[in-house]
What we know:
- Helix 3 (263-274) packs across helix 4.
- The protein has a single domain (39-317), classed as Leucine-rich repeat, LRR (right-handed beta-alpha superhelix).
- The chain is of the alpha/beta class.
- The chain has helices at 2-20, 239-243, 263-274, 299-355, and strands at 30-32, 37-39, 58-60, 68-69, 82-84, 92-93, 106-108, 130-132, 140-141, 154-156, 164-165, 178-180, 188-189, 202-204, 212-213, 226-228, 250-253, 259-260, 278-280, 288-290.
- It contains four helices and 20 strands.
- The model is unreliable at 1-22 and 311-315 (pLDDT under 50).
Amino acid sequence: xxxxxxxxxxxxxxxxxxxxxxxxxxxxxxxxxxxxxxxxxxxxxxxxxxxxxxxxxxxxxxxxxxxxxxxxxxxxxxxxxxxxxxxxxxxxxxxxxxxxxxxxxxxxxxxxxxxxxxxxxxxxxxxxxxxxxxxxxxxxxxxxxxxxxxxxxxxxxxxxxxxxxxxxxxxxxxxxxxxxxxxxxxxxxxxxxxxxxxxxxxxxxxxxxxxxxxxxxxxxxxxxxxxxxxxxxxxxxxxxxxxxxxxxxxxxxxxxxxxxxxxxxxxxxxxxxxxxxxxxxxxxxxxxxxxxxxxxxxxxxxxxxxxxxxxxxxxxxxxxxxxxxxxxxxxxxxxxxxxxxxxxxxxxxxxxxxxx
Length: 356
């Protein structure tokens, strides 16, 4: 029965000898059989190699000159767990190009030239946990772009040119925990955009052009721990937007926005700071852009005076209105008495003449 325990050892030795043989390891690549690793980074590749051994688990093709990922490019790599294709010039990925990679857990496509995601782009990647798509040329995210990514936990879409996200663009991502959308061109966050992301813990939205958010856009995020909205175009944000976040202990970043400092904004932040489950981590760094006389001032320095000044103004207006109304009533009463007196005199004069 010795061969029962010896068989795995023989297989490992066979893999090592095969990996180190010069028959498959492309010139310039670094091959490590014991780690089942093939590193062909920065080797001037223009096409994906065809002689990759089927037991490879880690394949690095980064920093090359790849422009296309054809169909069946990885059809023999059923054990592949990590695939690095970053820093190439990839602009096109054939439908189902990754479909054989049922064991893949990490895919890096960052710093390429991808401008559109087809519906079959991620076909077969049901085990994928991390997807890097930062620094590409994506302009919008459509419904169904991320189908088949049921196990994805980390998605990086930062530094693209994304200006719109359709409702349910992130459908089926029920276990996604980290979503990076910073440094894009988003302008508005609409209800339903994050409707399926109930496990999301970290949401980076800084460095966009966001000027408005619909009140219920963050409501589905029942696990949200960090929301970064810094460096956008927010001048005001409704209290309901924050109140819709029901996660116990959500940290919010809002610095470097062009806040219009008025009493309503002061009330919003006063209420938010009173909600025990919400934390404005950079509240003391919020500064005013408007009105001009408050530009550059920190909100914390003027927030108390904002409502005082408004209250004084309201009181002055109220007193002025009351005085005007009282004066009008007094004048009306005087006019009425004057008319009544005149009428009485006329009536008495008529009676006197009749008696005479």
